[in-house]
């Protein structure tokens, strides 16, 4: 092997080099600090503290270089001693910030609210993630601060254990081995560290309590005028649990706002409106549930929708506005579900779910989901509640039967779900509640009064996604035997669509390809997940060999028209190994292709819409196809 010259590691780090490393890797360092800080700080202070710790990690002068915990041959940030120095200082101060304040010791600077940066009048938080991110955040909050730092360094910077021990020791951890052992109790989730849930540089801003700020300003003026007489006047305290429950204090008093939040003005569709109206969306759902006349419950639901207090858990589907209603919304449901009291409201754009415990209002939650443009295929079910890995739905009034079936087992039958007169159905197992596991994928099968059947899948949001099959120009329901066989090997790929605001997912088997070893035909399927907001559409090309029970993703793209009604074409390829350990390049386009060609380390061309060529396992190839109309089709990226 040819030898390489290695530059000697400097004994000290100049402040200029440290500043360059801090600026270059600022997003990674703030993410590292945010994940290491305890969740008990609250998301706003956690974000500001993470930025403060990173900005204060810059040394004042030349500083001894930290131990060379990374091999000198490595490239990028891990070979940069400036990055290693700043990272160690960030971890050390993040561990200090996690220490509880006591009366016996003078507080360290990191334990106090940051002086800089300062944000006035706004509460900042990272963008909401999915169920996997929430589970990881809860698991990290249960660890000690040193163990949390070890887990984050191992997952974010991919440090080996020996290097982790040295970094932790340099950061002041007394027992690095104990921290590593405790961190190992949480399963590795490296891919989740790149989620926007843990990115303190991409933030969601909301106003703080506007009315309380105004009162504080008035109190400050009064205190300044009366300081010679009676000293400083304390700011007025905030209101408690009033008739608005967990809502924040009111900040708007005008006739339109008051009407929108008046439970007496809620609109309700007639019980038979869905039978006579030409509309087939949520606007013709009647108000159902045992508490539709509970004015106090409805008042709290409306108030929390418009002004969720700090203790309210708010979940928003991507692309959904979270502000209050513009006018009196429509009541869909109010009643007790499992151990909560639930209210469902609809304003023409969104479904809003308010939930509070059966006793009291502590722990109230409000969920927002965008449903504009919903038709008969989508306005069929809304989540009422989740408990013990199960989900319970309220179904449309035109639904006659509900059932549960395993999408992974197309030959299995449907298990009937009891549907009450008010449209609620028995709970069914939710695949969104079991991330990382795909031995089954249970879906909701609904049959309407005209006999039409459709499949809906829970992706962790307020409305389930509609499953279809077939060509993009004319998708059909996924409830038939052939459609179920198409979906079965590729059901697990739906996990990639969790918490993305998905409206429909179509599976199109665009090609079948005889395998070169004669072992049968491989199936090529393109799945396209459309969202309610019309963007962030995810397209996956997948291949399944006859010997495999699962499909494999061979290409994916975001916001690409491929496999959609505007561009109903697709081309993808995969390196496939036969049972005889021979490698081949397999490629397939839809039937509109007349030739497929490969260039690069594997070259060849074939008539028709499939291609098979001998290849090496590390081959790099470009694929193109020519369509019947003469246009060129590039492979999905």
Please tell me how large the radius of gyration is: 29 Å
Overall body shape: flat
Number of strands: 29
Distance between the termini: 35 Å
Proportion of beta-strand residues: 25-35%
- Mean pLDDT, nearest integer? 85
- Figure out the total of helices: 13
Low-confidence stretches: 1-7, 68-76, 228-241
Q: State the secondary-structure class.
A: alpha+beta
Biggest beta sheet attributes: 10 strands, mixed
The helix fraction, in percent, is 10-25%
List key phrases describing it:
637 residues; alpha+beta; five-stranded mixed beta sheet; flat; disordered N terminus
Model description:
α2 (26-36) packs across α3 (43-55) and α2 runs antiparallel to α6 (145-156). The strands form seven sheets. Strands 12, 13, 15, 16, 17, 18, 19, 20, 21 and 22 form a ten-stranded mixed sheet that branches. A five-stranded mixed sheet has the order 5-9-8-7-6, covered by helices on one side. The longest helix is centred in the middle third of the chain and has 21 residues, at 210-230. Helices cover 22% and strands 27% of the residues. The chain is α+β, with helices and mostly antiparallel strands. The radius of gyration is 29 Å and the shape is flat. A hairpin with a 7-residue loop joins β21 (538-544) and β22. The protein is built from 13 helices and 29 strands. Residues 1-7, 68-76 and 228-241 have low confidence and may be disordered.
């Amino acid at each position: 092997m040819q030898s390489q010259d290695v530059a000697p590691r400097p004994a000290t780090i100049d402040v200029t080099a440290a500043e360059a490393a801090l600026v270059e890797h600022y997003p990674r360092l703030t993410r590292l600090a945010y994940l290491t800080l305890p969740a008990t700080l609250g998301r706003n202070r956690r974000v500001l503290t993470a930025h403060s710790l990173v900005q204060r990690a810059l040394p004042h002068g030349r500083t001894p270089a930290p131990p060379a915990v990374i091999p000198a041959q490595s490239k990028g940030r891990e070979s940069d001693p400036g990055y290693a120095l700043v990272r160690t200082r960030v971890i050390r101060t993040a561990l200090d910030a996690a220490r509880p304040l006591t009366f016996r010791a003078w507080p360290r600077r990191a334990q106090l609210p940051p002086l800089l940066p300062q944000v006035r009048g706004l509460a900042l938080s990272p963008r909401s993630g999915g169920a996997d991110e929430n589970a990881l955040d809860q698991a990290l909050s249960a660890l000690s601060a040193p163990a949390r730092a070890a887990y984050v360094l191992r997952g974010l910077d991919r440090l080996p254990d020996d290097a982790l021990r040295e970094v932790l020791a340099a950061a002041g951890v007394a027992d690095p081995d104990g921290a590593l052992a405790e961190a190992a109790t949480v399963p590795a989730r490296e891919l989740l560290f790149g989620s926007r849930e843990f990115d303190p540089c991409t933030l969601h801003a909301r106003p703080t309590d506007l009315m309380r700020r105004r009162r504080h300003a008035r109190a400050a003026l009064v205190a300044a005028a009366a300081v010679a007489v009676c000293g400083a006047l304390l700011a007025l305290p905030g209101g408690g649990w009033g008739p608005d429950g967990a809502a924040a204090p009111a900040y708007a008093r005008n006739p339109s706002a008051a009407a929108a939040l008046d439970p007496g003005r809620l609109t309700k569709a007639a019980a038979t409106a869905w039978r006579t109206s030409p509309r087939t969306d949520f606007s013709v759902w009647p108000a159902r549930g045992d508490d539709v006349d509970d004015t106090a419950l409805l008042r709290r639901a409306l108030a929390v929708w418009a002004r969720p207090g700090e203790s309210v858990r708010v979940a928003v589907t991507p692309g959904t506005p979270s502000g209050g209603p513009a006018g009196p919304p429509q009541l869909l449901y109010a009643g007790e579900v499992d151990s909560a009291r639930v209210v469902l409201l609809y304003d023409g754009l969104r479904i809003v779910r308010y939930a509070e415990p059966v006793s009291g209002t502590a722990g109230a939650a409000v969920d927002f989901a965008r449903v504009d443009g919903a038709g008969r295929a989508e306005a069929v079910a809304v989540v009422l509640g989740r408990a013990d890995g199960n989900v319970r739905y309220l179904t449309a009034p035109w639904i006659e039967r509900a059932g549960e079936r395993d999408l992974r087992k197309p030959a299995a039958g449907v298990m009937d779900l009891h549907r009450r007169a008010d449209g609620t159905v028995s709970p069914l197992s939710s695949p969104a509640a079991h991330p990382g596991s795909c031995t089954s994928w249970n879906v909701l099968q609904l049959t309407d009064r005209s006999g039409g059947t459709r499949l809906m899948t829970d992706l962790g949001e307020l409305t389930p996604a509609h499953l279809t099959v077939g060509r993009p120009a004319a998708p059909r329901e996924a409830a038939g035997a052939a459609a179920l066989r198409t979906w079965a090997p590729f059901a697990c790929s739906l996990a990639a669509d969790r918490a993305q605001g998905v409206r429909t997912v179509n599976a199109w088997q665009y090609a079948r390809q005889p395998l070169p070893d004669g072992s049968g035909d491989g199936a090529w399927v393109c799945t396209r997940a459309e969202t309610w907001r019309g963007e962030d559409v995810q397209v996956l090309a997948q291949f399944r060999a006859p010997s495999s029970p699962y499909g494999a993703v061979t290409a994916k793209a975001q916001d690409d028209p491929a496999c959609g009604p505007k561009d109903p074409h697709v081309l993808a390829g995969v390196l496939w190994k036969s049972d005889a350990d021979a490698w081949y390049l397999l490629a397939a386009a839809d039937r509109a292709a007349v030739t497929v060609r490969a260039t690069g380390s594997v070259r060849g061309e074939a008539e028709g819409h499939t291609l098979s060529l001998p290849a090496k396992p590390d081959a790099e190839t470009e694929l193109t196809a020519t369509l019947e109309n003469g246009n060129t089709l590039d492979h999905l990226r």
